[in-house]
Amino acid sequence: MTALLEVNDLRAQYGAVRVLHGMSFALNEGDVTALLGSNGAGKTTTLRAICNSVSHTGDMVFDGIALRGKSTEAIVKLGIAHVPQGRGTFTKLTVEENLQLGAMVRRNRPDIVSDMDRMYGYFPKLKERRTQQAGTLSGGEQQMLAVARALMLRPRLMLLDEPSFGLAPLIVQSLFDILRKINVEERVTVLVVEQNANLALQISSRAYVVETGCIVLSGNASEIASNEAIRKSYLGC
Amino acid sequence: MELFSNQVLAGLATGAIYACMSLSIVMIYQAIDHLNFAQGEMAMASAFIAWQLIQWGLPYWVAFGLTIGLSFGAGFAIERSLFRPLADAPVLTHVAGFIALFAIVNSGAGMIWGFTIKEFPSPFGNGQFLGSELLSAHQAGMIGATALLLLSLYVFFEFTRVGLAMRAAVSNPESARLVGVNVSWMIGLGWALAAGIGAVAGMFIAPLVFLEPNMMGGILVYGFAGAVLGGLSSPLGAVLGGFMIGVFENLIGTYVPGAGNQLKLPIALFLIIAILRLRPQGLLGRAFVERV
Questions:
Q1: Containing domain of residue A27, as a range?
Q2: What are the backbone angles phi and psi of residue B183, rounded to the nearest 5°?
Q3: Among A3, A52, A225, B192, which lies 20 to 30 A Cα-Cα from A207?
């Protein structure tokens, strides 16, 4: 299997505070990979570094292309969609405009329209609310909108930051069911950051455990899920 | 009754000036989420550029088009050179920047073109509109031009990719970057558009007030008032607000005993405050709701 994204010795800092101390990992094409760890471990920063939203050093290669020195916009154009923590909704715009923005860097209009219909297929609630101001959606609906917006890019890699954050358990479960379906049907590679390890391991094939800016453990999701010692010491569950 | 309709018409005529100004204020607000105090001075400078081009012998409409183009470029350049470096600075730093820009443009224009008033031609001629006594051809043309500008802005923001990208960049810059919008270009473009619209406003206002560096002083205040009254998120609201202030001002001067010329403005502004007390988002502005 080939790696879609290879990250080597990634270091990042906010001002004088070092957050990542040399992370290395790889994502297999078509897989869902989980990045697990407690609050403040550096999971979000890792995603932000991939999109060049935070200053960092280290080599990242996406599908044979070095990401070093590329702007966020250029990285998006390569097919990396980032669903940020807190969902990143364009609250003042309508649901439909949010989806259109997801396809901002694409040109082919008929394709975009048919993609939008497909998104409404995954998330019928969004169709009902298409002309509504996005800020009025519930948390769960906004998370669905964020995922749909990211998919409108037709990404090869989707970065999901804490999709379960602030949502009721029932809604989280249905969201993760849809994410699993999307991974298969849209053939999109997914890197998901989660504090809720059990949830993330359910849909992942590989997982990396992060602690204070370093990867301390990696393996198959099923192995990590079944190893009680790992779960107790690193994942708090 | 005739007195009333005449006063409304006269109010609309002055209102057209304010409406033009309000529109350029809303434009910059849409782009950068701040009110640019130098907006009026930039419009004044544009009018001077047009005047200079006409003095050099260019036909009116050529000078008109060229001035819009130059102002567009200048707006972009101002953002790049002065405000881009302040991008992450607090709001008050921006305010200081706007005031500095105001002073620089104002004295710059005085230095280059002097403070004596100059006549500025109207493309619509000097006659009256269809024989009306209250509305000059220029004022009627200006109302038409404002409507046309408004329509183009509406189409731009609602139906074009760039318009959508601009709204996204204001609504949520971080997310806009993550969908591939070049946010800093969008801000530059917002400045450019505001300067271009300001140029149109300046060139249409100059024939009515005479051209001189301080010509926008009072108008900017009315323009702000119109924009706030109509709603800073709505170009249509801003234009309506501008017209309403013109009409209010006139009617109050005519009908409120003792108001006369001195008190008509304060009373009109007081009315605005009363309206905003009831509708803080302005008449046509949208109240944005957000669930967290």
A1: 3-86+155-235
A2: -60, -40
A3: A52
